[in-house]
């Protein structure tokens, strides 16, 4: 049972060989889960051994030649604050022992050594080390959760949903209170790439690109980096880097090309401040990216919105865009065609010159195409081909007619495709996957990949249809299975934990009690079916 558990290492330090020998033979080291990493006759030799062996516990005499025990501890603790020192002192050295405790020693014992007392001390020391390890794991989990929650919060604000602020006040910090700008990194020709990749290849490629971006971000002062849509990532930069934004974008393109051999483009927004501005600057960075379809090649595109962009201000028909997106989501072809007529009427009523009208239509098309792509409704389409054809048409009516024809073909083709699933079937498939894999270390990224949705879209859809958040449903599956095992078997409680996805039995007990109001043992006693 203890074979797989890592032993804590102990260093013995004493200038009396007889004491070292008695310590080695009189203490049940193996039984305690401890291993002697080395022994030293003085503090100077101990310093070298500490560097070489990295022990967790040091048992040392207080009075030694060259460097005494307290001096040794003062030297080591500033670098390794979790080290546990247990001192051995003579009857005449009580003041030294008290000083050792003041300086951070765990405990001390008097000569002649009572081995039972030392064993008890070591048991307490091991308990402290275990608590420290649990606290470190908890902090790592909290930090990971904090990072994921912050990404989720930023994504929600970017989508224009302010609700996370009510629930995640504890995550707020000042990083977006100062000036910042957004870069949207998007893989070029993503639809054609995903048509070539298997599900596993797609997951690996997106994981690889995310790693490249995260490593680059750590080295270049990025405030936050997170995936938004499939094939798209958002990076938030401090405003102080605004003057070199183009160079930073070029570095990103170069890094992704070098390490993944994939091409991407980068759209950069204007500088802003405040978390609530995420939903404002995201469309600006995307609008900058629309230039990619005119340039014909990967590059960095900066939103150069100015107060005098032309002689007039044109309000983008956001409500019309949202209605068109909804018609795509519900596969309502009739509604979509009527909305294209509304778009034509809007442009005509505004009296827009051809250049502005064409730009507005192009922006709308890219948004709608990405909605098809986002919902996995794409077949063998060429967005660039459609944009190029529209660019060559001379009248508004010709452009709208071409749009109707092309989008009708796409929607009908997608509707007939056997690969398309509606939201409910996607969520049901995801739930079945969770029910089959709840006992593993299951991540939201993995299940979103199975659903073939972005993490943001998956979270929203899963909650809407199932009534659970992802984590709530995973926990629900685990608790139901745990209750079944407790009712119908004699498997020990600590053995139930890994069977339902928890490596730490104590944490499993906490989650179980929170879910059922009872500990696993109490639940078994009340609900056991007397399995032999």
Automatic annotation (TrEMBL):
Keywords: DNA-binding, Phosphoprotein, Transcription, Transcription regulation. It comes from the Bacteria. GO terms for biological process: phosphorelay signal transduction system. The keyword Phosphoprotein applies. Residues 428-526 form the HTH araC/xylS-type domain. InterPro entries: CheY-like_superfamily, Homeodomain-like_sf, HTH_AraC, Sig_transdc_resp-reg_receiver, Tscrpt_reg_AraC-type_HTH. GO terms for molecular function: DNA-binding transcription factor activity; sequence-specific DNA binding. Coiled coil: none annotated. Pfam families: HTH_18, Response_reg. The keyword Lipid biosynthesis does not apply. This is Response regulator.
